[in-house]
Amino acid sequence: MDSAGSVVSVAPQLLIQSAGSRSSECSRNSITFSTSPLTGRSRQDVAWSRRGQSRERSCRLHPGRRAHDPGKLTLLCDAKTDGSFLVHHFLSFYLRANCKVCFLALVQSFSHYNIVGQKLGVSLTVARERGQLVFLEGLKSSMDVFFQAHKEPHPLQFLREVNAGNLQPLFEFVREALKPVDNREPAWRCPVLLVDDLSLLLSLGVGAVAVLDFVHYCRATVCCEFKGNVVALVHDSGDGEDEENDILLNGLSHQSHLILRTEGLSTGFCRDVHGQLKILWRRPSQPTAQRDRSLIYQYKIQDKNVSFFAKGMSPAVL
Amino acid sequence: MLNNNDNWRTWRKSEMLDSLLAFGGLVLLRDSVEWEGRSLLKALIKKSALCREQVHILGCEVSKEEFHEGFTSDINNCLVYHDLFRDPLNEKMGRPFLGGPLGALTAMCRRTDPGPVTIALDSLSWLLPHLPCTTLHQNLHALSHQNSSPGGSSSVQQVCVLGLLHEELHGPGPLGALSSLAQTEVIVGGTVGQASAYILCRRPQQRPTHQTNWFSILPDFSLDVQEGPPVESQPHPDPHTSLVDPMTHLTFNLRLSKKEREAKDSLTLPFQFSSEKQQALLCPGQGQATSHIFYEPDAYDEDQEDPDDDLDI
């Protein structure tokens, strides 16, 4: 909620800058996401600037914004590489933006995300203690399903079911975590659901249609009802042999407003270029007059940040 | 005869949408992740609403507010929206899956309102995994062939069913089954930033016709027909009939002339045993031994040793 009391949804604005940026919104060589209020800019701006005699490039991408954007689904996808760095950055971004975050962490432990988060300037422990972060640790909670009795269905109750297709308890957990509460709690900004990752649910026996239905209900509740955002990671096997995963990936792609796809280089491993990122904007209900909705960048992951550059423009090869 | 380019484009724009809506039946809009088809679906809905037709929308994939974005209030007032987005499986209500999309489809089939009607299904890709395939096909057939005969009249209502389908989500079986139901099939694609619609029309007792239109959809969901890129860069080959004869411009000969065919027929294959060949083998004549083998041994070939010396025979 902004100062006027109206709901302002935070649509992620990708600010990708190379070394030497002086923007107060980002640290050096980092992916940063601005939380500036939505001021109604309706077209994309891609501005390139040359800073003095340096070869550095900055590219600022402004997705279309309006005062009351109803909430977006951002799909993170990786193929032949690890796209989890985007999960860490979205998590740190939304926590710094003072959003209420529900994080379904099915892949790694809490300490793993906390250690990486500290490198990016956020403390998950502090966020959880003050109620900003609702963290479902899948690895730990899965043990509770089997060895502890629960009066109410556990979010991961599907692990005990023969037909592992009912994700309704997991959805109820998300809805309960992000529903607006009374004014006694701090006024967080828009709620955000972050999932790492949905492909793991397929490995745990849940069908692709059940996962799509789960995401559908999350969209209806988090995006439309609560005016928040959903960010989810899905892996792309790329070989076309995993039909269920392909159905999940394509189904989510059709539901998404923004698709960030990380790919390994087709030529193999490179020390200075770790992969490339494809950005595709989609508005399922809005026409796009021009088809310049996709961009491709290459990137290198460093210790505390990620540097992006145009294809073939890695500092190592220039 | 049109005199200027603007009139021609206006005519083409109107023609494209009219051709999709005129015949009725099931119009299948096939799109992909890269080339979404919901914009074209909304353009067709707008066209129907402007023609004062009844428009029913079964919304499963996007919210009602998101679907109404871009339409004026006049258009929105003409739309009857059946919202299945918020709780399609009735989970929030705690009831088992009884109504939902099947109930909504069945209710549409039983409608008795007079006048032409357009029914938009957004989307068939959502309905297919949640309904039995045969049930969905039966409902689609019933929807697109609704008859209204009040008072015993034999008039047939003009019903147009627009079905949006995301083709990557389905195998060739369901795609083929839906294609067989559709009277018109539109494949949304494009190249070099320009969207295209490959339109395949099937009419009873007529040959299927196809055409490709290059278009863009404006923010108010009006259609703008473009000239499009050259023919060579059209992305969609005809999935049902051949556009180019593959027999032309070959580097080898697939056809025989009369003389060549006679020579081929009279040719005796080397392993074909005939009575003439049998006689030739049994009674070799003077002319049979016409081949000779000339051998000039090399110097080292004159080996006096018997290679069979080591055999204890």
Automatic annotation (TrEMBL), chain B:
Predominant location category: cytoplasm
Cellular compartments annotated: Cytoplasm; Nucleus
Keywords in alphabetical order: Cytoplasm, Nucleus, tRNA processing
Pathway participation: tRNA modification; 5-methoxycarbonylmethyl-2-thiouridine-tRNA biosynthesis
Record InterPro entries: Elp5 (IPR019519)
GO terms of molecular function: tRNA binding
CC annotations in GO: cytosol; elongator holoenzyme complex; nucleus
Entry superkingdom: Eukaryota
Pfam families per UniProt: Elong_Iki1
Family: Belongs to the ELP5 family.
Record protein name field: Elongator complex protein 5
Organism: Otolemur garnettii (Small-eared galago)
